[in-house]
Design brief:
ABC transporter transmembrane region fold, single chain, 61% helix, Rossmann fold, 23 helices, 2 domains, 618 residues, 4-stranded antiparallel beta sheet, 10% strand, alpha/beta
Length: 618
């Protein structure tokens, strides 16, 4: 129930729709009850029953006079006499006309009931869809804000499942209950009030059965949340399998592993099939259980009330008893709806918990309250005795390095030496465990993340592009870039030579992950994207690793020209690309092994020279 209350908090911006929904439901419940009460005068006409006066004489011989309202305590008598007066005014005592009058009255009551029912649903549409949109947006926003470390421990499919199917579960479980919060309880309250007025003795029987119904329904629904949680987790597993299949389809086909992945997927969907069957069959018990219990209640009322009418031990007459039975049946529909709502709350609890888990996940990289907005880079970047670990073992240990403005520093070393980790730390994808990283003497943890990354241009080893046009991919870091600026950046990255030949030039869609392009073309586009952003600090994480030899040379010249007026951190695998760097830092197991310019390091005859010699034979 706590999760249900949390979800309802999202309804605050839509309170005007909630108020309209509540008011409409009040009138729906009222006219729904009155529509059954209006049956009594019709039955009285059909059964030729005339109301009695205070002396016990039939009033058919007396012309009704307009009653006078004497107070709330006499409201029932006033309404009955007013109805009799209006009926006589309309019919002149003619039974046929009287029947038409009461039938019209019933039609009006049902018409008003359905009009307010429609209005209630009309307001609910805006309320429910608005809440769903806001929840989905909040989950997505939080997903984007969370650090990369969070997703290294999560299945992508599970995240997709929470944003899509879990939110839909809320729409058809928790939020469908909004319709019932006011309408069904009020219908029951209004109906029982009338029933108590008609026969308090008979109505007591209903209160005996309500706790029994509630107990049985709660027993059936007790395990729904657990079963629903299993279904949603399994859905996350097969969505992950689907996502991995689409991402790695080239490798799957290349290794003839289609059958292996097909079996893995089918195992997950089979588990989902069995879990879903158990969940839905348990849910399906709700309606027949509540209906059967309701019919038992009706049967008892028929037996007990029928005896009261037949023996004359009560003021109940035939027409009143029939109205009472109609009112009894009027309780069944909302009672069934409430029982379904209880099931839905149980089922939706698992979805709400999974969604709330993402929303409530703390973000360790969240900006400080008074984070500094830095709009320029003036002097230096300093790695001050930093240490960092992803899990248990440190990948960087007591690492210190100062990079003056305008200088190019290259990081080299074997795989796992910590080169890419430095790129992840300067961009604050992760925070250091020890030490600090300073830009112009300010710890980057004191800067707002937005202003820090505005100073950085990033080109990663894997060219990450999106299923958009080249133009939209390029303007990721500069929304207001002109076509001329885009073309100039493409020329700098040696990408214009192939872009100009595409069917729609820079407006050409490059497909999912840019798969309509070659690896080298994708990398050149990602370099052009960084060029267009034109930041003061460039972080190039093996930016030329996917290029062929010819493109590498052309792009390397472009990169060197681009880096002349910028501070650059270049992580390189191919050592031939960084020979002109102002400083080369050789890393080994997270620590600096050697440091200096190309010629100096060669002269040292150490680790760097061995790396160069190894590559010269490649």
């Amino acid at each position: 129930m706590n999760h249900f209350i949390n979800i309802l908090k999202y309804a605050k911006p839509y309170k005007r729709y909630a108020i309209g929904h509540i008011i409409s439901n009040v009138f729906f419940a009222l006219f729904g009850t009155l529509s059954f009460v209006a049956l009594k005068p019709m039955l009285d006409v059909i059964f030729k029953k005339d109301p009695l006066d205070d002396l016990g004489q039939p009033t058919a011989q007396i012309i009704p006079t307009e009653p006078v309202y004497t107070g709330l305590m006499e409201i029932d008598d006033y309404v009955e006499k007013l109805l009799a007066y209006n009926m006589h005014q309309f019919t002149g005592g003619d039974d046929s006309k009287a029947l038409i009058f009461v039938v019209a009255l019933i039609v009006v009551m049902f018409l008003l009931k359905n009009i307010f029912g429609y209005l209630a649903n009309y307001f609910l549409v805006f309320l429910r869809n608005g809440v769903i949109r806001d929840i989905r947006n909040k989950v997505y926003k939080k997903t984007v804000e969370l650090p990369l470390s969070y997703f290294s421990e999560q299945r992508k499919g599970d995240i997709l499942s929470r944003v899509t199917s879990d939110v839909l579960d809320l729409q058809y479980s928790f939020l469908s209950v909004l319709e019932l919060i006011v309408r069904e309880p009020l219908t029951i309250i209004f109906t029982i009030t009338i029933m108590l007025y008609i026969s308090p003795q008979l109505t007591l029987f209903i209160f005996i059965f309500i706790p029994v119904m509630g107990f049985i329904i709660s027993k059936i629904g007790k395990s729904l949340k657990r079963k629903s949680d299993r279904v949603q987790k399994e859905q996350g597993i097969f969505l992950s399998a689907l996502e991995e299949t689409l991402t790695g389809l080239r490798i799957i086909k290349g290794f003839n592993a289609e059958e292996k992945f097909n079996e893995r997927f089918q195992e997950s969907t089979t588990r989902f099939y069995h879990f879903s069957n158990k969940l839905l069959n348990r849910q399906n018990l709700a309606s027949p259980s509540s209906e059967f219990l309701g019919i038992l209640m009706i049967a008892v009322i028929l037996w007990y009330g029928g005896n009261l009418v037949l023996t004359g031990d009560s003021e109940l007459d035939g027409s009143t008893f029939l109205v009472y039975m109609g009112l009894s049946y009027n309780i069944l529909t909302p009672a069934k709806a409430i029982s379904r709502a209880l099931y839905n709350i149980k089922k939706g609890g698992a979805a709400a918990e999974r969604i709330q888990e993402i929303i409530d996940t703390p973000n360790p990289l969240k900006d400080k309250e008074n984070a500094i907005e830095k709009n320029s880079f003036d002097s230096e970047i300093k790695f001050d005795n930093i240490s960092f670990k992803y899990q248990d073992d440190y990948v960087l240990k007591d690492f210190s390095l100062t990079i003056p403005k305008g200088k190019t520093v290259a990081l080299v070393g074997q795989s796992g030496s910590g080169k890419s980790t430095i790129a992840n730390l300067i961009t604050r994808f992760y925070d250091v465990n020890k030490g600090q990283i300073l830009i112009d003497g300010i710890d980057i943890r004191d800067l707002s993340t937005g202003s820090l990354r505005a100073q950085l241009g990033i080109v990663t080893q894997d060219a990450i592009l999106f299923n958009e046009s080249i133009k939209n991919n390029m303007t990721l870091g500069k929304d207001n870039a002109t076509d001329e600026e885009i073309i100039e950046a493409l020329k700098v990255a040696n990408a214009w030579e192939f872009v100009k030949d595409l069917p729609e030039g820079i407006n050409t869609n490059i497909g999912d992950s840019g798969n309509k392009l070659s690896g080298g073309q994708k990398q050149r586009l990602s370099i052009a994207r960084a060029v267009l952003k034109s930041p003061p600090i460039m972080v190039l994480d093996e930016a030329t690793s996917a290029l062929d030899t010819e493109s590498e040379r052309l792009v390397q010249v472009a990169l060197e020209n681009m880096m002349k007026n910028r501070t650059s951190i270049v992580i390189a695998h191919r050592l031939s690309t960084i020979q002109n760097a102002d400083e080369i830092v050789v890393l080994n197991k997270g620590q600096i092994d050697e440091q200096g310019q190309h010629n100096e390091l060669i002269a040292k005859n150490g680790t760097y020279k061995k790396l160069v010699e190894m590559q010269s034979f490649e």
